[in-house]
């Protein structure tokens, strides 16, 4: 009977996104009713099939919190705490939702029905799929994760996936798709370990913060995407580390094999951080030094972190990155600055290894940022890689 629940889930997705107009009745009456119908039908079918999906502990002993429910609450709270910290360091914005008594009640009904409908059906599918497949649950977890990842992404957001627009594509992949994948993977794994109540505790904390907090962190989307990816990944590792000894004892798994999985997870997390860092999405942008004009302060192969700052804060002696008239990025030291009658800043720059200052002053519009930190020699990796590809793609003489 699982196909009935899957069919209803697909029907709800199509109805919400393609049929309902988004008015008050559709949003706060029909949508909650659909999710509640899904939850009730799931409960009835599971009961007839003798499947307990609401609350259980696949692992008898539990060290990450007192129970799977407690673990879900802790992981959700951890992710929300990271978002609050981000808000403190960057900025907060007002919630888009209203906070009158009526809207709080209607939003609570909307969120609760959605949470019960999605997590009841998720837990039913995962329990049904792994009922006789306890040793190898990876494939069912992945399939169910993908299903609910798609359910949680509005079709309109898929329109941002445009190969002709790299910025929009990157925002969709990093800010929407990967975050939805990470969150749903952790929710599905919690559901596998402890049933619907475990995944509801995690997803419920995230939804409660999103819908009922009067202020929300409002940094660049890349920062939110980073938190939305790393926090679930850390939670997944924490769960694995807490239950691994009991899985090994019970099933005879080798410790090294389990640790290998953790290693790949850490590699994935590190890769996400590296990509965001490389594109300057963490507030600073790395630049590799290719010339010796700034010796001895900066040498060829050094990596310099560039922070985008207000031009008025740049002082004589700071090293800035700017775009020359030939559209070349240059990193030189400020030796003089001044303003014209219109209040526009100009900077006279000079390479430490050069005898004379640069001929043309740098206008404030061409300043990309100020050097804030140097990592010696690490840029040689990029230099060697570029030289290698240049050599194999160069035409034969």
Rg, Å, rounded: 27 Å
How far apart lie the N and C ends?
69 Å
How would you write the strand order of the largest sheet?
3-4-9-5-6-7-8
Query: Are there runs of 5+ residues with pLDDT below 50, and where?
Result: 246-262
Structural class from helices and strands? alpha+beta
Shape: elongated
Along the chain, the helix and strand elements come as: HHHEHHHHHEHHEEEEEEEH
Describe, in plain words, how this protein is organized in 3D.
By secondary structure, the chain is of the alpha+beta class. It is 57% helix and 12% strand. It is built from 11 helices and 9 strands. A 7-stranded antiparallel beta sheet has the order 3-4-9-5-6-7-8. Strand 6 and strand 7 (345-350) form a beta hairpin. Helix 3 (68-89) packs antiparallel against helix 7 (166-194) and helix 3 runs antiparallel to helix 9. The radius of gyration is 27 Å and the shape is elongated. Residues 246-262 have low confidence and may be disordered.
Task: Give a concise summary.
The chain is of the alpha+beta class and 397 residues long. It is 57% helix and 12% strand. The chain has helices at 2-19, 24-49, 68-89, 101-129, 138-151, 155-158, 166-194, 196-212, 221-251, 255-278, 380-393; strands at 92-94, 215-217, 284-288, 303-307, 319-323, 329-339, 345-350, 362-363, 367-375.
């Amino acid at each position: 009977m699982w196909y009935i629940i899957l069919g209803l889930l697909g029907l709800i997705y199509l109805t919400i996104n393609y049929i309902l107009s988004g008015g008050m009745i559709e949003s706060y009456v029909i949508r909650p009713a659909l999710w509640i119908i899904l939850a009730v039908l799931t409960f009835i079918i599971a009961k007839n099939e003798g499947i307990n999906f609401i609350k259980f502990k696949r692992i008898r002993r539990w060290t990450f919190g007192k129970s799977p429910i407690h673990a879900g609450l802790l992981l959700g709270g951890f992710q929300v705490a990271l978002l609050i910290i981000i808000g403190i360091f960057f900025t907060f914005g007002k919630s888009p939702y209203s906070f009158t008594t009526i809207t709080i009640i209607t939003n609570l009904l909307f969120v609760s029905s959605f949470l019960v409908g999605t997590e009841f059906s998720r837990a039913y599918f995962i329990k049904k799929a792994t009922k006789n497949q306890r040793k190898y649950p990876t494939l069912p977890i992945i399939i169910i994760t993908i299903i609910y990842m798609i359910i949680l992404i509005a079709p309109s957001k898929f329109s941002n996936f445009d190969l002709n627009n790299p910025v929009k594509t990157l925002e969709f992949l990093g800010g929407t798709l990967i975050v939805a994948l990470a969150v749903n993977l952790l929710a599905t794994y919690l559901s596998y370990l402890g049933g619907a109540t475990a995944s509801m505790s995690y997803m419920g904390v995230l939804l409660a913060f999103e819908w009922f907090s009067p202020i929300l962190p409002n940094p660049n989307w890349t920062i939110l995407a980073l938190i939305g990816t790393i926090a679930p990944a850390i939670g997944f590792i924490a769960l694995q580390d807490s239950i691994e000894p009991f899985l090994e004892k019970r099933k005879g798994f080798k410790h090294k094999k389990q640790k290998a999985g953790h290693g790949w997870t850490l590699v994935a997390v590190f890769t996400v951080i590296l990509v965001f860092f490389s594109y300057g999405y963490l507030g600073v942008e790395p630049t590799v030094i290719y010339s010796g004009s700034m010796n001895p302060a900066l040498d060829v192969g050094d990596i310099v972190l560039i922070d985008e700052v207000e031009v008025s804060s740049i002082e004589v002696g700071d090293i800035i990155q700017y775009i020359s008239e030939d559209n070349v990025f240059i990193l030189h030291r400020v030796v003089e600055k001044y303003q014209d009658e219109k209040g526009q800043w100009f900077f006279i720059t000079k390479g430490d290894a050069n005898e004379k200052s640069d001929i043309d002053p740098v206008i404030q519009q061409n300043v990309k940022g100020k050097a804030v930190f140097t990592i010696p020699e690490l840029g040689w990796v990029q230099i060697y890689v570029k030289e290698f590809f240049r050599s194999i793609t160069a035409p034969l003489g």
